[in-house]
Amino acid sequence: MNLAIFTRSNALRLIVLTSAMAIVCGCGLSGPAHGPAASNAAAVVDMGFESFSPDSVTIRAGQTVEWRNTSLITHTVTDDPKRAEAPADAGLPAGAQPFDSGDIPAGKVYLRRFPVAGTYRYFCTHHESDGMVGTIVVAPAS
């Protein structure tokens, strides 16, 4: 075996690469957002770098939506007209209460049940100005 190729410089590169991989693996590339959806989730929305995907889902009143932060950065799911930079980015049906997930770290999930039918327009407080907005259409329960 030729040990000449395992030089000090190659050893240093290996250490740097291994350290970088350990950091990346701990920053959102694992966790509940990368596993199966919750059994009670009627719809799943992935949070990318600056987007919700899909940006619109339809469920029935009483069902739950799961947001999955599959990006490497923190996001929120917020529907509070008082916190929106643009009025069109937040909307609640009559009788629904504003909500805010708080920070959702990389790799984590947020679940919310929607008991009131109507259209909800929500946003990420960190990326609203980048167009990170979404819509939940809640049809009446059948």
How would you characterize the overall build of this protein?
This protein has 142 residues and is α/β, with parallel strands linked by helices. The chain has a single domain, classed as Immunoglobulin-like. It has 1 helix and 9 strands, in the order αβββββββββ. The chain has one helix at residues 8-25; strands at residues 41-47, 52-53, 56-60, 63-69, 78-79, 99-100, 109-114, 118-123, 133-139. The strands form 3 sheets. Strands 2-1-4-7 form a 4-stranded mixed sheet, with no helix packed on it. The chain has a 3-stranded mixed sheet with strand order 3-9-8, with no helix packed on it. The N and C termini lie far apart (71 Å). The model is unreliable at 19-26 (pLDDT under 50).
CATH second-level architecture: Sandwich
| Average pLDDT metric | 88
Give the strand order of the largest sheet, numbering strands 1, 2, ... along the chain.
2-1-4-7
Ends apart, CA distance between termini: 71 Å
- Provide the β-strand percentage band: 25-35%
**Percent helix among the residues?**
10-25%
Oligomer: single chain
Q: What is the succession of H and E elements?
A: HEEEEEEEEE
CATH superfamily: Cupredoxins -  blue copper proteins
Give the secondary structure arrangement, pairings included.
Blueprint: H1 8-25, E1 41-47, E2 52-53, E3 56-60, E4 63-69, E5 78-79, E6 99-100, E7 109-114, E8 118-123, E9 133-139
Parallel strand pairs: 1-4, 3-9
Antiparallel strand pairs: 1-2, 4-7, 5-6, 8-9
Quick tags:
142 residues, three-stranded mixed β-sheet, 1 helix, globular, single chain, Immunoglobulin-like
